[in-house]
Automatic annotation (TrEMBL):
This is CelD/BcsL family acetyltransferase involved in cellulose biosynthesis. The keyword Nucleotide-binding does not apply. Residues 147-286 form the BioF2-like acetyltransferase domain. Keywords: Transferase. GO terms for molecular function: transferase activity. The keyword Transferase applies.
Length: 369
């Protein structure tokens, strides 16, 4: 196995085409996060994005690397899928791959479960709720659709005609979408992702792509000509990734975000889209609307023996906790207190021991879920 590492900005055209072919022929790599354009978009605004090229382009492994040699998925906290770009039956040793990349570790939380080479490094089983639009009838209960039809009629009565633009290119609307999302993060006492210049620059870069294979899609819901909800996501083939939904809080009582989502679901097949992927999370609307789940893995690959031994102890602890769910009664209060710190830790890559403890408590709580 030959492995070479290049900056993602230095991929050759032949390598990019090879990557794209692998992605298109492996159903497990359906997400736009697995497209070469996504990695190139992140690399265009960050200088820490690399790609391991295995066996002259048979396999690609994109990643970010910090000063300490710690690896993370490309895009970090905004990445909803990551892993190897390879044929479905390809196997390799992740630790060997990391050593060739000069990495001491690679933390992951959205690797498809079918990439079984990461199974021995997995800590938590999780999943991404998905809306499969191929059955014909829109997913979601009859009561949910009836309730939102009523809200839409009330919205029209109070503010005027409701209209939707599912794929617009207005730069000012993208700015508004990010502004609303920043405010939403602050209301929920979460770290404001869009306070980071690179995150705003990334969405603007992705918004310049307009092909069926990879595109940024900005959708907007208006009432009486006034924008009240927006969503920015990505498309790859027949998959639409639901990424950054937001809305004007003044219209909260009308559930404008869900109204826009239901319109996206209704109109998606006209654009050749049969799947809307919500990304990982147990938000109520995801559970109510999704009709299947993509299994995912969360864990960390390490390359030195001591870290590997400590990881084994951690895995045994997780196994014990999973077998004794009553422990959740003790962990839950601690989890609530540390949740905000955990979110900050995820964005900062757990560089400090206290943040590693925060993460451990949060992970143990989710094991019990």
């Amino acid at each position: 196995m030959e492995i070479s590492v290049v900056s993602a900005t230095n991929l050759s055209q032949e390598q990019v085409l090879s990557w794209a072919r692998i992605q298109q022929h492996n159903p497990g790599l359906f997400s736009p996060f697995f497209r070469p354009e996504f990695t190139q978009a992140v690399a265009s605004i960050r200088d820490d994005v690399y790609v391991a090229v295995v066996d002259d382009g048979a396999v690609f492994f994109p990643y970010q690397r910090n000063f300490f040699g710690m690896g993370r998925p490309v895009g970090g906290a905004v990445s909803d899928y990551h892993g190897l770009i390879a044929a479905p039956d390809y196997r390799l040793d992740p630790a060997t791959l990391l050593r060739a990349c000069g990495l001491t570790s690679w933390r992951f939380d959205h690797v498809p479960a079918e990439q079984t080479m990461f199974s021995s490094w997995q800590m938590i089983e999780t999943g991404s709720p998905v809306v499969d639009l191929t059955p014909g009838d829109l997913p979601g209960s009859t009561a949910l659709h009836a309730d939102h039809r009523r809200k839409r009629r009330r919205l029209e009565r109070d503010f005027g005609p409701v209209d939707v633009d599912l794929d617009m290119t207005d730069q000012s609307m993208l700015e508004l979408c990010m502004t609303w999302k920043s405010a939403q993060y602050r209301r929920m006492k979460q770290p404001d992702l869009f306070a980071k210049p690179w995150a705003r620059a990334l969405l603007k870069e992705i918004a310049t792509h307009h092909t069926v294979e990879f595109s940024g899609i900005l959708s907007v819901l208006r009432a009486g000509g006034r924008p009240i909800a927006a969503h920015f996501g990505m498309r790859s083939g027949n998959v639409w990734h639901y990424w950054f939904p937001t809305y004007d809080p003044d219209f909260h009582r009308y559930s404008p975000g869900i109204l826009l989502l239901l319109e996206m679901m209704a109109q998606a097949p006209k654009f050749g889209i049969s799947t809307i992927d919500f990304g990982r999370g147990d938000n109520d609307y995801k559970m109510r609307i999704s009709n299947r789940t993509v299994p995912l893995q969360e864990g960390i690959v390490v390359t030195n023996r001591l870290s590997s031994q400590m990881l084994g102890l951690k895995r045994n602890l997780f196994s014990f906790v999973k077998k004794h769910p009553t422990i959740k009664n003790v962990l839950n209060p601690a989890h609530q207190l540390l949740q905000d710190a955990y979110r900050r830790a995820r964005l900062r890559m757990y560089w400090f021991v206290p943040l590693m403890f925060v993460q451990l408590v949060s992970e143990l709580t989710r094991v019990c879920a």
